[in-house]
Amino acid sequence: MNHEVIAPNPWMILPFALLLAAMALAPLLAASWWTRHYTKVSLALGAITLGYYLLGLQASARVWHLAHDYTSFIALVGSLFVVSGGIHINVKGKATPLGNVVFLFIGAVVANVLGTTGAAMLLIRPWIRMNRCRVTAHHIAFFIFIVANVGGGLTPIGDPPLFLGYLQGVPFWWIAKNCWPMWAVGVGILLAMFYAVDRINFARAPREVRELETVQEMWRFDGLPNLFFLAVILGAVFVTRPVFVREALMVAAAIGSYFTTPKPVHVANHFNLHPVREVAVLFAGIFATMLPALDWLNLNARWLLGDQPGPGIFFWGTGILSSGLDNAPTYLGFLDALFGATGARSTGELLNQHALSLLAISVGAVFFGAATYIGNGPNFMVKAVADQQKIRLPTFSGFVLKFTLPFLLPMLLAIWLIFFRG
């Protein structure tokens, strides 16, 4: 896919910065105001940028390409959210530390099929129920690390940044073929850390709780006909022509799932469409306002990164910004920076000549998205469910200090040293 270069006015990056700042700070400082007005803020800022590109730069082709990417993105995320909401996992009994490790590993694998959003929403409530006699913040933090982020690093379905890369021409199986060593090391380190922490938590639990948690678990799955709709969505990912047929199939699968799922299943999952509506609105604004930032990065990448930036720069650069911003637009930003720094004119050229740097961007976006509550969409959804269950979680900064720095950062350092230091 050829990469179009446009020279926007740098001041037009301001709407993008304002929207990201509002998304990060408004829920913390003015939650009720943000709940009422986030739609207006997102669409108004997006309209400013789109007006500039359509009327000022006469770049209608760029806007059309953006609209196609957004439609594909929201169709995938939304359809997986709806279908996963039609599957309910009922678990009885309790979980030992080893049982928890097995559950988290399964969640990491499932995230590549349902996406991190679908897997997180499907599994977070069973996860809490399994550990209800001793659930603490570390159970939620490691669930965010593994199921809602790092686990989805093997397929474009797994995490939104990778799907955006797929839309830009990165082959579907290129991710699994090249990312599996980083995925295995990252997931393995996090599972080992979790086991050590959970063993301590288990040992501190009262004796009657420890004895109860050795009871064999009994599982029941409701809503399994939704597996058919899931298969439709997965098959649709590979449909590229004609335009929007892929997205139409995904939407049709979501509609079919929504209307055929028995109401008790949705009730048991506390399912509603508000989260996906919020994602659709906010990402409409993000996709629109990030256009000038992407094009500016493309034009100035060599000045910012140097003539021959190594993969480590892309790993840490993408990762650090993904921690404080959403990792999907950050991925696109550094993908554009890689185009600009290398002078590549197509994704195929990047794959042939700069594959390790592209891999560093992919892994950085996915793995660092776990660093904060706002690094990836599912993180805040998981936190909301935990809050509903009255689980005490740290604040935004507390999460970073208590979990990101002592647990996630060592894993990220290991990934850099092993794979991207050169």
Please give a structural write-up.
The protein is an all-alpha fold and 422 residues long. The protein has one domain. The protein is 74% helix and 2% strand. It has 18 helices and 2 strands. A two-stranded antiparallel sheet has the order 1-2. The longest helix is centred in the N-terminal third of the chain and has 34 residues.
Summarize the structure.
With 422 residues, the protein is mainly α. Helix content is 74%, strand content 2%. It has one domain (10-420).
Q: Main attributes?
A:
single chain; 422 residues; mainly alpha; two-stranded antiparallel ribbon; 18 helices; 74% helix; 2% strand; globular
Helix content range = over 70%
Query: Helical segment tally?
Result: 18
Q: Hey, roughly how much beta strand do the residues contain?
A: under 5%
> Structural class of the secondary elements?
mainly alpha
Neighbour order of strands in the largest sheet: 1-2
Round the mean pLDDT to the nearest integer and report it: 89
Return residue spans where pLDDT drops below 50 for at least 5 consecutive residues: none
Sum up the overall morphology in one term.
globular
Write down the secondary-structure element order. Answer: HHHEHHHHHEHHHHHHHHHH
Distance from first to last alpha carbon:
28 Å
Largest sheet: 2 strands, antiparallel
Would you report the number of β strands? 2
Rg for CA atoms: 21 Å
The oligomerization state is single chain
Q: How many distinct domains?
A: 1
